[in-house]
Design a protein that fits this description.
By secondary structure, the chain is mostly helical. The chain is built from 15 helices and 4 strands. Helix 11 runs antiparallel to helix 13.
Amino acid sequence: MNVHATTHDELRAEMGDKFDTTAMATETTLLQPRFYTTDFDEMDRIDVSPVREEWDTLIAQMKSDPNKGHFKKNADWDKIDWEGMEPGLKREFIDFLVSSCTAEFSGCVLYKEMKRRGKNPDICELFSYMSRDEARHAGFINDALREAGVAVNLGFLTKAKKYTYFRPKFIYYATYLSEKIGYARYITIYRHLEANPDKRFHPIFKWFREWCNDEFSHGEAFALLMRTDPKLTESFVNKLWIRFFLTAVFATMYVRDHARPEFHKALGVDIDWYDQEVFRKTSEISKQVFPMELDLDHPAWLPTLKRIESAFRKMEEAEKAGGLGGRLSKLAATAQAGLGFARLYLIPVKKSTPPASVRLEPAY
């Protein structure tokens, strides 16, 4: 994989002054979706025998490709007046679409590479189906961006985006949570707009129900992969890592969502309510494989998230200010965010016992 990082200045010179979504997608920060690489040989050695019955059922479902014809525009795709959209909403909605497209395409690239490098037939088959799904998702979002004249250059992205190396177990934890929280996010928005259709300001939301079921089944695959090796969820050190990833994924979502106030206002949802709802769904689902859940009702939970979000805003302001004062302010804000994350991490967790049978079906 090419890990060359093209600068924003280079991208802007290449693409001109229009809304530079490729530069947005290429950016690598704590809050932006990343591209990952891993130890593919280790993944190729996975033995799914301990979960064979549930594995075969899931693979058969994926092979049947229930959403084969779903990601296509039809009569339900309303025409959008992008030029007439309120500027703040347009900016935040494009940011949402670019971030979602990048995350989906990141999965496509990783899963396709796993399939290309592998020799294990079980693993290769799984990742061929998952890369297929993620490619559809990314392409569908990019079609929506194309209508606005700001499509992401996905081919260029594979060359320009930095790749982050994660050990396979970290891929399992992070990607499992990414897929399950993706399901929870999409279905929560879908159900809200089902009850409040006047708030559906773009047709892409009509596609979220079947879409999020793909996310759910991908999460099921990683749950099964983790069940192939009990140490992944039962050892003391790995429990600490699971707790870390739960905290990091939830905190990142909270900060990201609060950076899009106009987007959530247009949807008619309170961001704190929405995030807590998504966290609760994700926590309930993840008990299928994780031996703990975060205490979302702890008195320190929400206030600490707010402090972290405030710290990230201060970091952005300091970055814009520049100079020595800006650098010092950024260091202070970074320390504030770090202390906030440590406080979240140290909130006592609720222990749980995963069921004997790991498989779930979407129920929301």
